[in-house]
Specification:
30% of the residues lie in helices and 21% in strands. It is α/β, with parallel strands linked by helices and 239 residues long. The chain has one domain (11-232): Class I glutamine amidotransferase (GATase) domain (Rossmann fold), CATH 3.40.50.880. The strands form 3 sheets. It has an 8-stranded mixed β-sheet. The two termini are 15 Å apart.
Length: 239
């Protein structure tokens, strides 16, 4: 990952893609990292950039999203275990159900969970959007921690993590190493927050911090989340 005399090193963001992932969970989350630039540069600047994003799947072969485009991952599971990575995110979507269905392919489910646990030891932050939290919970990574997930699928997700302190209100939850969001646009908001945190301006290093809850009748993009988004459009990273 690139580093120059003028800028800090480029941080690498990994996204786990699987058949049936929800496109907005991936692309909405990715966009804040993709548009981030170092202080003193603009969108048209040439690399290095603050972040590099890679898609990761079981193997390097096309993956079909839920009612959306195919994607070609950059790495397979094996390469991801060899490469430096700062953050790994698991999206949600209709494919989460078969992803965790042990009645269909128990060996594949076990291998995927083993891989997540192995990656957990290699990255600074494990994140999820929407029902992707079910995979982290099923792997035992969220036990005893606060976590968020898709509000509409809340009942299904919590079955995979009875020891998790599930939050049915927050748009995202920062529990230190593990940062999880609700569904749809909440993942994009969390992406902006994580850009800020990784840049050293997020302040969310403490465990169990809940950010940008949405009370009944409130605007979907809370004031706190909006401030974070505006601040992160121009990334303030210091060497």
């Amino acid at each position: 990952m690139a580093k120059s005399a003028a800028f800090p090193r480029t941080q690498r963001i990994g996204i786990f893609v699987f058949d049936g992932f929800e496109p907005i969970d991936v692309f909405g989350f990715v966009e804040p990292f993709a548009i981030a630039r170092f202080l003193g540069t603009d969108y048209a600047a040439v690399p290095p950039y603050p972040f590099e994003v890679v898609l990761i799947a079981r193997e390097v072969a096309k993956v079909k999203s839920a009612n959306g485009p195919w994607v070609m991952p950059d790495w397979g599971f094996a390469q991801a275990l060899r490469e430096p990575l700062d953050l790994l995110m698991v999206p949600g979507g209709a494919g989460t159900w078969p992803l965790l269905d042990e009645t269909r392919d128990p060996k594949a489910v076990a291998a995927m969970l083993d891989w997540l646990r192995a990656m957990d030891k290699r990255v600074r932050i494990m994140a999820s959007v929407c029902t992707g939290a079910a995979a982290l919970a099923r792997g035992g990574l969220l036990d005893g921690l606060a976590a968020a997930t898709n509000h509409a699928a809340f009942g299904w997700v919590i079955q995979h993590g009875p020891k998790v302190l599930w939050d049915s209100v927050a748009r995202w939850v920062d529990s230190g190493k593990y940062v999880t969001s609700a569904g749809v646009s909440a993942g994009t908001d969390m992406g902006f927050y994580l850009v800020s945190r990784l840049a050293g301006r997020g302040g969310g290093e403490g465990g169990g911090i809940r950010l940008a809850p949405r009370p009944a009748g409130a605007d979907p993009l809370s004031a706190a989340s909006a401030r974070t988004s505006q601040r992160c459009l121009r990334l303030c990273m210091r060497a």
